[in-house]
Amino acid sequence: MRLQYLCHIIYLMELISLARQIYMLYSWRTYISLGSVEWTPPDGIKCANVRVCLEPARRTSMNEISIVGLDLAKNVFQIHGAGPDGSVALRKKLNRGRLLEFFAKLPICVVAMEACASAHYWGREIGKLGHEIRLINPSYVKPFVKRQKNDAADAEAIAEAASRPTMRFVSVKSAEKQASSMAFKVRDLLVRQRTQTVNALRGHLMEYGLIVPQGLKNVSLLHEQIATHPDLPEVAKMLCKGLLEQVMFLSQQIVVLEKELRIRARQDDLASRLMTIPGVGAICATAIEALAPSAETFSKGRDFAAWIGLTPKQNSSGGKDRLGKVSKMGQRDLRRLLVLGATAVVRWARRYGAPGGAWLARMLSKKPPKLVAVALANNLARIAWALMSSGGVYQAPASGAA
User: Are 377 and 308 in a shared domain?
Assistant: First the structure.
């Protein structure tokens, strides 16, 4: 009995040693696979014999990489390469100067990135090398991150998300289209800076009992009031004059930029056709042309309106549709411009009257004006997609609806 007990102890010790060897092999990240483990049960006083057969696992080579997940950064980029079966083929960090050199030597494959800062630039540069570029919304990548977040996990999640057959991708913008988008965004920045400066000026003057009426047109009348105000110290007068000069300078820059946008809108075929839609001016048409993807991205106008965020949010379940407010999940700049244009159309219709029997007249008779403006913005988005996809100009319905 004592000898059998000793044999059992030796058998357990050999199993523990085997487990330790397997753990060490995997902790060293050696690419091996456990072929077979065989043993003979104790027979009488004989001890168990443990035999392990280790077979080297086949590693995916560089030539077999089908998709690369690229985590973008300013200086150090993380790369994750995977084979057709999803097996890991490459994990690597590269400096900015070596990135294009690496992809130039890599066989043609799919390169996926998050649609974030500098993504369109790298998409154009890597695309010139022959690779297929896939840009993904960062919110679609987040569910694929496993446990802790780091650069390597992000790159792996990007590759995993891009390999999904139902994933939605962002088209790479050309340098010219990005320049048009930049012109619109710079104008928007100047408008915000002017509004901030005006609000600061009104707040400072309120501390001295000088109330400035709302509206940009009233700010230009402040020069004389500031100069003649009895309770305003000289230092405050100097500072307020500086803010006024800044407001005037920003207004001049905005006028120059808007003039340039109108010239571009008249010269561009798509923007000029979009301007025939009621409520769509030069700035809105230029923004649609610069910020919206190609019409082929959407199968119908409702999809384009949903991308902008002008469709109701759903909370449906059990076969019952529950629709709420607009989702506001899309391109907020286009949504804001379309709602502003629709608000102008609704204001004009309420003042001068919409044609009898028209959709706008029926909506205004039973719905609040703001709700009608959002609904009209949805219609404007669908009309814009129709002009983008099929060409032509806007033609009002026979009923005369706006």
Answer: yes
Q: Where are the alpha helices (DSSP H) in 58-174?
A: 99-105, 119-127, 138-141, 151-162
Domain final residue, candidates 14, 29, 56: 56
- Cα 86 to Cα 29, 69, 184: the distances in Å are 18, 12, 41
**Is there a single domain that holds both residue 45 and residue 75?**
no
| Separation of alpha carbons 169 and 114, rounded Å | 10
Cα dihedral sign, 279-182-123-139: negative
Query: What is the tens place of the pLDDT at every residue in 216-229?
Result: 888 877 877 787 88
Written as six digits, the tokens of 120 are 């369109």
Q: What is the CA radius of gyration of the chain?
A: 33
For the cut 60, the answer to whether the pLDDT of residue 35 exceeds it is: no
Greater pLDDT, 14 or 44: 14
Residue 348 CA to residue 284 CA, distance in Å, equals 18
User: Is residue 241 domain-shared with residue 340, that is, in the same domain?
Assistant: no
Do 84 and 182 have their domain in common?
Answer: no
Total number of domains in the chain = 4
Structure tokens at 291: 């910020």
Report which of residues 7 and 257 the model is more confident about. Answer: 257
For residues 240 and 219, membership in a common domain is answered with: yes
Tens of pLDDT along 79-91? 999 998 888 889 9
Under 8 Å between Cβ of 339 and 349: no
Q: For residues 276 and 386, state if they share a domain.
A: yes
Question: Taking the CB of residue 145, how many other CB atoms lie within 10 A of it?
Answer: 16
In tens, the pLDDT along 295-317 reads 888 889 999 999 999 988 888 88
Q: Give me the DSSP letters along 217-241.
A: HHHTTHHHHHHH-TT--HHHHHHHH
Please say whether the beta carbons of 135 and 171 come within 8 A: yes
- Full DSSP string of 330-361: S-HHHHHHHHHHHHHHHHHHHHH-PPTT-HHH
| Phi, psi (rounded to 5 degrees) for 252 | -65, -40
What is the rounded CA–CA span in Å between residue 209 and residue 222?
14
d(CA 284, CA 187): 12
Q: Is 329 among the domain residues? A: yes
Same-domain check for residues 96 and 76: yes
Q: Which domain holds residue 199?
A: 177-267
Given a cut of 70, whether residue 166 has pLDDT beyond it is yes
